[in-house]
Every structure is written in C-alpha cells, then in structure tokens.
C-alpha cells in the first residue's frame, strides 16, 4: 500500500500532470461561481436527502425515485429530459459551445429489499440508514449541483449531462444501457458513487457467475450413497475458496484485490429429499483482465471437477458478464487526463482541514467502469462522506454535503469552461 501511494504521489507531482490540472483558485473569485457556492442551504438539502433515503429502491424497482428525480430535473429547465426503458433519468444543461461535455451520473438503486426499514435516524451529525450514502447522498448532491449552477447563473462552454442511473448494484446495467443507446457520448464521465474525499480513475474487472449442481431428487429414506447436489455444492464452495490468489493489492477503505466471494446459496424444494438442484453465486473482482480471466477459469474448473467427483450434473449461468476493456485508455493516459488531474486539484482544495491529501486510485467498481471500457475518460467521485455501504449500519455525515457539492460545482465549471 505504501509503495502504491508513494508512486501515485510522485506521478501527481509531474509537470505533465500540473499542466493538465484545469482547477485554479481564480475560478472561486468569479461572481457567478461565488453566488452558486454561497447558495447552498444545508437544512434544505439534508431534508431532501432524508426523504429520498426513506424511499425504497432495490435494483430493478427504482420507479418511485426515478419519478421524483424526473420531476426535479424538469424544474431545472434542462433539455432533452428522458426516462428510458431502464428507468434511467437524464437531461442536458446546454453549454454555449466549444467546450467538453461532461456527464454526472449517480445511481438511484440500493442493495436493500423493499421491506427494509429505511427510517433515517439522526445521531448528532450522522445520518444512519441503509442506503443513505450509497448512493442516495450522491443523487441529492447531483441534483443540488445543477440547481446551484442555475442559481449562480453559470454558463459553461460544454454541455453538462445529468444522469440518474439504475441497476448499478447488479452489474452497472442502467449506465451501460444509457451509454450504448442514449445517443450521447460525453467527452468525460463522472460517476458520483464514492465518498467526497476519494477519486477512483480505474475499473475493476467484475464478473458474477452462478454454479449449479443437479441430481435426481430421491426421498431421504432412499438417499444413502446416492449422488447429491447439496454435497457437491458444499465441496465446490470449499474448492473455490481454496483457489490460490495472487499477491494482495490494497486500496482506500480496506479494499483488497483480487477477491472471490460466494454471496448467495440456494436449492431444494422439500425438507425430506435430495435437492434436484443446488447452487451458489461467485462474485469475482480483479484489478486487471489477465488475472480476472485466470481466476474465472479456475472457478469453473473447480466446479466441474467436484461435479465429476460427486457424479452430479453441472452448469454455469452468467449473472454479470465481464466488460471488454480492449478500448480502455492505458493507466498512464487515464491518470494524466485533465479529468483526473482537475478533480485532484479541486478536491484537495476543498478537503476537510487536517485530513489526508486526496490521492487518485487505479480502482473502480461503479458506472464509470462502463465509460472506461468504451475509452471515455471517467472517474468515480462524490459529494458526501459516508461509511459502511451495503450494510444495515450505513451512515453519512450530514454536514459533508455542502462542501461536497461545492467541490462538484467547481469541478463542473473547470471541466466545461477550459
């Protein structure tokens, strides 16, 4: 970890990167920018944040949030406001021309079932509720970014595109659909899906597969010595976890790569018979394509080997397919791009006093992955500070959203007026 951070700090100090940083403190002195930055009211923003958090939106069931976002987008006066068949909501804040177009994207779905208690509890400065950070806080930050630009009367050369995406949590499906079918190909893509003190400029390789074992369904009284999908599943899970992983790469927040996780298990229909089918899912994530492909092959081989040993049937279903990154820019190109360097300059200007410098990481498990796979410069960043995503103990800092939105305002202006 220390070696990785040192290398990134040295890279960030290079003359090339200094030249590609479009953030300047002079932007902060522009009357329109000052007006936008001073227009934020924490109480109003947090009230909306609470309301949206308490609106259930499991992946594939985002309609209520999509309708809310669309109503708010229409108030902004954006052009080409759409809700597509995936329930992605988008609109365009037109520029005057001659500048880069930038998409700001936050996802409306959460990992929590619709029956989850989403009541937000205030604990001093903390907002506690499932989904309050990932990604509800960033949806609100995105809306407030565009509102503040309007309140300040800010005009940009390039277009700013607002996208509230869907089904991010189950394979980045909404963003993928939007990028492939909307007709827009932004010059840059900012996924608002990270804490406001982090910048990710990479794309983890993500793949999810379901390993399914089958056997004749025999009553318990006749099951002795018969092949069973349940036993095969158990042994296959153990075999998958026995796969040797390469040396660990660590990232911000305790991320450890590559990683293999068995997330779901199922099978059987009655208590007193061999299950006709037993299955489990594997979530595989790596930092590079070659490692991902090797580990996927090892997972499949482990399942097939166990099935043969246990004399049961075996098949695989792809639940989230790996993206093709053959068009992606190189690590150096991505790191040196003005999007990344301007984000570094902006976020370090606005970071909390006394906090560590914001260091870009070649990681990413967000909608930005899809843009990167298409060769579009992209980052994952954010407008709020939050902890424990995907856990019932998720929480966010209420007073982080105003400085978070301020840094997004300046980032948007810097990227589209250069």
Automatic annotation (TrEMBL):
<dbReference type="InterPro" id="IPR002933">
    <property type="entry name" value="Peptidase_M20"/>
</dbReference>
<dbReference type="InterPro" id="IPR011650">
    <property type="entry name" value="Peptidase_M20_dimer"/>
</dbReference>
<keyword id="KW-0732">Signal</keyword>
<feature type="domain" description="Peptidase M20 dimerisation">
    <location>
        <begin position="229"/>
        <end position="302"/>
    </location>
</feature>
<dbReference type="Pfam" id="PF07687">
    <property type="entry name" value="M20_dimer"/>
</dbReference>
<dbReference type="GO" id="GO:0046872">
    <property type="term" value="F:metal ion binding"/>
</dbReference>
<dbReference type="GO" id="GO:0016787">
    <property type="term" value="F:hydrolase activity"/>
</dbReference>
<dbReference type="InterPro" id="IPR001261">
    <property type="entry name" value="ArgE/DapE_CS"/>
</dbReference>
<keyword id="KW-0170">Cobalt</keyword>
<dbReference type="InterPro" id="IPR023076">
    <property type="entry name" value="HMG_CoA_Rdtase_CS"/>
</dbReference>
<protein>
    <submittedName>
        <fullName>Acetylornithine deacetylase/succinyl-diaminopimelate desuccinylase-like protein</fullName>
    </submittedName>
</protein>
<dbReference type="GO" id="GO:0004420">
    <property type="term" value="F:hydroxymethylglutaryl-CoA reductase (NADPH) activity"/>
</dbReference>
<dbReference type="GO" id="GO:0006508">
    <property type="term" value="P:proteolysis"/>
</dbReference>
<dbReference type="InterPro" id="IPR001160">
    <property type="entry name" value="Peptidase_M20C"/>
</dbReference>
<keyword id="KW-0378">Hydrolase</keyword>
<dbReference type="InterPro" id="IPR050072">
    <property type="entry name" value="Peptidase_M20A"/>
</dbReference>
<feature type="signal peptide">
    <location>
        <begin position="1"/>
        <end position="18"/>
    </location>
</feature>
<dbReference type="InterPro" id="IPR036264">
    <property type="entry name" value="Bact_exopeptidase_dim_dom"/>
</dbReference>
<keyword id="KW-0862">Zinc</keyword>
<keyword id="KW-0479">Metal-binding</keyword>
<dbReference type="Pfam" id="PF01546">
    <property type="entry name" value="Peptidase_M20"/>
</dbReference>
């Amino acid at each position: 970890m220390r070696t990785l951070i040192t290398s990134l700090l040295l890279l960030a100090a290079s003359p090339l990167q200094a030249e590609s940083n479009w953030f300047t403190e002079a932007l902060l002195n522009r009357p329109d920018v000052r007006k936008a930055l001073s227009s934020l009211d924490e109480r109003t923003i947090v009230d909306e944040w609470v309301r949206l958090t308490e609106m259930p939106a499991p992946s594939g069931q985002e309609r209520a949030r999509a309708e809310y976002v669309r109503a708010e987008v229409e108030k902004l006066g954006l052009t080409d406001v759409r809700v597509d068949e995936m329930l992605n909501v988008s609109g365009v804040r037109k520029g005057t021309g001659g500048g880069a177009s930038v998409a700001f994207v936050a996802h409306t779905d959460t990992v929590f079932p619709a029956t989850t208690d989403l009541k937000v509890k205030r604990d001093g400065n903390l907002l506690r509720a499932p989904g309050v950070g990932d990604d509800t806080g960033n949806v609100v930050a995105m809306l407030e970014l565009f509102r503040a630009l309007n309140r300040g009367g800010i005009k940009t050369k390039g277009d700013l595109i607002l996208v509230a995406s869907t089904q991010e949590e189950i394979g980045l499906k909404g963003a993928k659909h939007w990028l492939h079918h909307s007709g827009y190909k932004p010059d840059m893509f900012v996924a608002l899906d990270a804490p406001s003190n982090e910048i990710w400029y990479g794309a983890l390789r993500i793949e999810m597969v379901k390993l399914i074992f089958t056997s004749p369904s025999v009553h318990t009284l006749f099951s002795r010595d018969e092949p069973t999908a349940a036993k095969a599943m158990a042994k296959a899970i153990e075999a998958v976890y026995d796969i040797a992983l390469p040396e660990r790469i660590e990232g911000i927040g305790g991320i450890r790569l590559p990683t293999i996780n068995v997330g779901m298990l199922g099978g059987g229909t009655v208590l007193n018979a061999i299950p006709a089918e037993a299955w489990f899912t594997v979530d595989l994530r790596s930092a590079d394509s070659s490692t991902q492909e090797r580990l996927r092959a090892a997972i499949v081989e482990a399942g097939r080997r166990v099935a043969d040993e246990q004399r049961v049937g075996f098949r695989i279903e792809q639940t989230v397919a790996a993206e093709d990154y053959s068009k992606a820019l190189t690590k150096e190109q991505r790191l040196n791009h003005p999007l990344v360097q301007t984000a570094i300059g902006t976020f370090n200007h606005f970071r909390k006093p006394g906090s560590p410098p914001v260091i870009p990481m070649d990681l990413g498990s967000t909608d930005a992955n899809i843009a990167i796979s298409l060769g579009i410069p992209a980052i994952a960043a954010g407008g709020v500070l939050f902890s424990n995503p995907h856990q019932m103990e998720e929480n966010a800092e209420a007073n982080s959203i105003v400085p978070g939105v301020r840094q997004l305002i300046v980032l948007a202006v810097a990227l589209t007026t250069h």
